[in-house]
Write a structure and sequence with these properties.
The protein is an alpha+beta fold and 123 residues long. Helix content is 45%, strand content 25%. A three-stranded antiparallel beta sheet has the order 1-2-3, covered by helices on one side. A hairpin with a 5-residue loop joins strand 1 and strand 2. Helix 1 crosses helix 2. The longest helix is centred in the first third of the chain and has 41 residues. It is elongated.
Amino acid sequence: MGLKQQRGMTFIGLLMVASVAGVLIVSGLNILPLYLQDQKMSTIFKSLEKDGEGGMSRVEIVKFIQNRMDINQIESDQVDLGGIEVEGTPGGGKRVRLEYEARAPLMGNLDAVATFHHEVIVR
């Protein structure tokens, strides 16, 4: 009679799969806060669209966003508000646009960089 064929994974194969899965899980846990913070920024821009006034100046708009960032515990060094663009619209409102990058450390000297964009019209 012939030898039975072995089926399944060796211990070394199991360790390799577990290490790859571990790296992916740790990377995901490091990147997740970036997207949670972006959800907060999205909420801030929606409240600006709802509660803001078309006659607000750029300084007032930035102050409004900074106050909401403080409420939502977003540090000002995490989102650069210097990149806010405010321009007039034909209907008398203002278009407020913000593009920013957020970084998350992965391992060693590797970082994940995510780019986010928010735009609303304040009337």
